[in-house]
């Protein structure tokens, strides 16, 4: 997954860091193996690495100064999540039928034209402004419906409960 920062945040801010962190953790929770950040932020990297260390999983963050090169050199199916794309429900079957691993591009405002041009699919989760984190979760759930029930074999495991918070520490 490539996360492009909004143009209004040329330097990492705490608000932008929080969005990047939520996107990384959402991607991880839904089965992604990696996220590329085009605006590296040590706070995001440290926070996500701590979660992976505690809760397990095979997930990494890679910084890139050239997201266009990552996309253009990829052999993965490129799916750009944008409110200007085709409705996801009309393309889910086509994407799944491709049978390829997916590189999601989650943009912000003013995504450059090359993102639309290099993407195999420009997919909309609704046609109104909304959270990129929500769009990513919806897209991953539709394309990988069982991915969020994955066991990550970490030091900590969450025990499902209807009434309280419970975790097991297996370290």
Question: Can you describe what's shown?
Answer:
With 171 residues, the protein is α/β, with parallel strands linked by helices. 38% of the residues lie in helices and 21% in strands. It contains 6 helices and 8 strands. The protein has helices at residues 14-29, 42-55, 67-72, 88-98, 113-118, 132-143; strands at residues 2-3, 34-37, 60-63, 77-87, 102-106, 121-124, 156-158, 167-169. α2 links the parallel β2 and β3. The longest helix is centred in the first third of the chain and has 16 residues, at 14-29. The two termini are 30 Å apart. The mean pLDDT is 87.
Summed up:
The protein is of the alpha/beta class and 171 residues long.
C-alpha Rg (nearest Å): 16 Å
Count of helical segments? Answer: 6
Strand numbers in spatial order across the main sheet = 3-2-1-5-4-6
Q: State the share of residues found in helices, binned by percent.
A: 25-40%
SS content category: alpha/beta
* Spatial shape: globular
Largest sheet: 6 strands, parallel
The stretches of 5 or more residues where confidence is low (pLDDT under 50) are none
Measured by DSSP, the beta-strand proportion falls in 15-25%
Order of helices and strands: EHEHEHEHEHEHEE
Instruction: Round the mean pLDDT to the nearest integer and report it.
Output: 87
The counted number of beta strands is 8
Distance between the termini: 30 Å
